[in-house]
Write a structure and sequence with these properties.
Blueprint (H helix, E strand, L loop, with lengths): L7 H18 L7 E5 L10 H10 L4 E4 L4 H4 L9 H12 L3 E5 L7 H6 L26 H18 L5 E5 L12 H15 L2 H8 L26 H27 L7 E3 L1 E2 L17 E5 L20 H14 L2 E6 L17 H11 L4 E4 L26 H18 L9 H5 L2 E4 L2 H9 L8 H14 L4 E4 L10 E4 L7 H12 L3 E5 L21 H4 L1 E7 L7 E5 L2 E14 L4 E7 L7 E8 L2 E6 L1 E3 L3 H13 L11 E6 L2 E6 L5 E2 L7 E4 L3 E2 L4 E5 L1
Parallel strand pairs: 1-2, 1-9, 2-3, 3-4, 4-5, 6-7, 7-8, 10-11, 10-12, 12-13, 13-19
Antiparallel strand pairs: 14-16, 15-16, 15-17, 16-20, 17-18, 18-19, 21-22, 22-26, 23-25, 24-26
């Protein structure tokens, strides 16, 4: 039976071990390293040496093989062909490029899918995925899991002790799949029985007495169907958790196989798409660290100003950095956009300089490496028109390729200026802030939002953007970390809360921490049940107020909250608060039957403070002003950077990035020495200095 539940002690221990591995895999003096995907199987072998030499000449230090090559690695069942891959690895080594070796589990070969169609994903309507795309096999297929591990083992046996291989990438952009195949149903039932032990406990947790949904055995339970209106909310939540664990456990199984053969010098990771409503990211404790992929210009974000779409939304890299780094203590970026892409809604050209800006932003967050998809632009297949480091001719560098080379040269200069004794400015470290993230809570809220005006990630970003305008370093943290290491802790929309978590937050505040809690917190217990008590009763002592009721407004009829004689609009969620004696009211509702009632409160508790923000504003300006007042009140110095300007420090270097549509002049200490850029930073520009 698989173990699905880890103790906090194990998690903390694992995080400590992983953090120690950073310098083992990536020497501190290296700062970062840069690589590019290469697909030998896409090109005539006579071109491989030319391409790999070109990659090295442009400054790249590693490459990336075999991500989607299962059909080439195992052309027929049980017969493996590594000769072509051996040749590619040897060429990479000839030009001093390390190799990231990938497992090809995202693309099973056609002979496997035809012989065993049961491995294919089954949709809710019973239709099967088919061969010809990628990620069409199910992580819940028992045969697929077992057979794919055979291929992974052969790959690990071949290259696990090869010092030319620096690390391993598992699968590609793994994600949650909702499969409706027979194996998935059976595995879900087993998962439920492991979790609840008895069907009576499950009935109680799911509230199956509602609508006559009571089960008498686990065999009666099927995977819930989202198309069926009114499907049990708690069952859907558990199925999402199960699907997340199918993903994370499949990666762990691969990692354990590789670990049997791999040299201790080879690291193991996987490259996730940054998503904040899933639980599998960070669950695979067998990984040495996690990495992410990021594309900034694809038609999905407008950025700042009329041409901001050519640079992208600045929080996309910033939040990913601050989300992935705390998971294992360090991180990498496996795919960073090299230029124009092909798969977006509008595939615009990035602003000249934007690729370099993104590279510096990834570096500023502490990344140990950055890799790009891909070195050569594809000339056939689904991703035609997608830029590479060089164009379709395989020779001519693209604008983004030249910006990668420029960044690599600049990192070389930073390496020459590296000082292992250098420290980040004390004021920067003093404003370090944690944002508590709980994937289960985000999942639960998104499944039951109550209003179309609500956006969970947007709610987080209102606080995150404010902190970045202050020049604050931010960690998105899980509930297993020591909160005491952060002067300020923000707990946004923690809808499901346990009593031990309430105690932990209380201890943090009593010990001198400054806690900020927001709307939708404390409403439910960890099962997703409301407390059989007044609304959000477990946090009333912590927040110093009661929630009288909450309100939700339609988009056509917004109202406002008054703070410091200024009005701030809101629609999505407002909690009408009744402060206890000694609790200050910082903002009040305006314009409805509860006008004058408290919307934001503040009180002292022990040695610390608790601020409760009972409203989700439209623009985020209110949240920024509340945080500004709190930081001032508790004596934490802040900066005042304009929207779209990011300033971070790492390894003693300062990095300022401008995603805005106006130039920004950075004030530097007299002792600062500029290493790249100028104090006046143009849109899309970067300034790097050493104090």
């Amino acid at each position: 039976m698989r173990k699905h539940f880890l103790t906090a002690a194990l998690v903390i221990s694992a995080l400590f071990v992983f953090a120690q591995g950073g310098d083992r895999f990536f020497p501190a003096s290296q700062l970062t390293t840069v690589g590019a995907y290469y697909y030998p199987e896409h090109w005539d072998s006579s071109q491989w040496e030319r391409d790999i030499k070109k990659m090295a000449d442009m400054g790249f230090e590693f490459t990336h093989f075999a991500e989607f090559a299962w059909a080439q690695l195992e052309p027929e069942e049980g017969r493996y062909d590594f000769a072509w891959l051996d040749k590619a690895v040897a060429l990479a080594a000839k030009y001093n490029l390390g190799v990231v070796m990938c497992t090809s589990t995202a693309t099973p070969p056609v002979w496997l899918t035809r012989k065993h169609p049961e491995i294919l994903m089954k949709n809710e309507d019973g239709t099967l995925y088919d061969h010809g795309a990628r990620q069409h096999a199910s992580f819940s297929s028992n045969y697929y899991r077992s057979y794919s591990l055979k291929m992974v083992e052969e790959l690990a046996r071949r290259y696990g002790q090869d010092d030319r291989i620096i690390g391993w990438q598992l699968d590609n952009e793994p994600r949650t799949f909702h499969d409706y195949g027979d194996d998935a149903h059976q595995r879900f039932r087993v998962w439920l029985e492991e979790k609840y032990k008895t069907v009576d406990a499950l009935n109680k947790a799911w509230g199956t007495s509602f609508w006559s949904s009571v089960y008498s055995s686990f065999d009666q339970i099927n995977i819930p169907r989202p198309s069926q209106w009114g499907t049990n909310y708690h069952q859907r939540l558990d199925h999402n958790r199960f699907a997340d664990e199918e993903t994370s456990s499949f990666l762990d199984e691969q990692a354990r196989v590789i670990r049997k053969y791999a040299s201790p010098a080879q690291w193991i990771t996987s490259n996730y798409i940054p998503m904040y409503d899933v639980g599998y990211i960070g669950q695979s404790l067998e990984l040495d660290f996690v990495s992410y992929t990021r594309y900034m210009v694809y038609g999905g974000d407008r950025g700042i100003g009329r041409k901001g779409y050519r640079v992208g939304e600045y929080t996309r890299i910033g939040m990913a950095n601050d989300f992935f780094r705390p998971l294992k203590g360090y991180y990498g970026v496996m795919e960073l956009q090299p230029g124009q892409v092909n798969w977006g809604s509008v595939n615009s050209q990035p602003l000249p300089g934007a690729v370099r800006l993104w590279l510096w932003h990834v570096f500023a967050g502490g990344s140990k490496f950055t890799c790009t998809y891909r070195f050569r632009a594809p000339i056939y297949g689904y991703e035609q028109y997608h830029y590479g480091i060089v164009g379709p001719d395989g020779v001519t560098p693209t604008p983004g390729g030249l910006e990668f080379s420029m960044f690599i040269r600049e990192i070389g200069q930073l390496r020459n200026n590296y000082d292992p004794e250098a420290r980040n400015p004390a004021a920067y470290e003093k404003r370090k802030t944690a944002i508590l993230f709980d994937a289960g809570n985000v999942m639960a809220i998104n499944m039951n939002p109550q209003t179309r005006e609500w956006n969970t990630e947007g709610h987080f970003l209102k606080y995150y953007r404010a902190l970045k305008s202050f020049g604050a370093p931010v960690d998105f943290v899980r509930d297993t970390v020591r909160f005491e290491q952060y002067p300020v802790l923000i707990v946004p929309a923690l809808q499901q809360i346990s009593l031990p978590m309430v105690d932990k937050l209380m201890a943090y505040v009593n010990g001198g921490g400054n806690l900020v809690m927001t709307v939708r917190s404390g409403h439910q217990d960890p099962r997703g049940h409301f407390w059989e008590a007044p609304f959000a009763a477990p946090i009333r002592e912590l927040t110093g107020s009661d929630i009288e009721f909450y309100d939700l407004l339609p988009s056509h009829s917004p109202d406002s909250v008054v703070y410091n004689k200024r009005k701030y609009g809101w629609t999505s969620w407002g909690e009408i608060l009744k402060p206890h004696s000694g609790t200050e009211t910082w903002a009040t509702f305006s314009g409805d039957f509860y006008a004058g009632k408290a919307a934001v409160t503040y009180h002292r508790l022990g040695k610390g403070t608790v601020t409760y923000v009972g409203v989700d504003s439209r623009s985020g300006d209110l949240e920024r002003e509340i945080l500004l007042k709190l930081f001032s009140k508790v004596g934490i110095p802040v900066e005042n950077y304009p929207h779209g300007v990011i300033v971070e420090y790492r390894d003693g270097f300062g990095i300022a990035l401008n995603y805005a549509d106006k130039s920004f002049t950075m004030e530097l200490p007299a002792s600062a020495r500029i290493l790249s850029g100028t104090k006046e930073i143009n849109p899309g520009g970067v300034l790097v200095w050493k104090e």
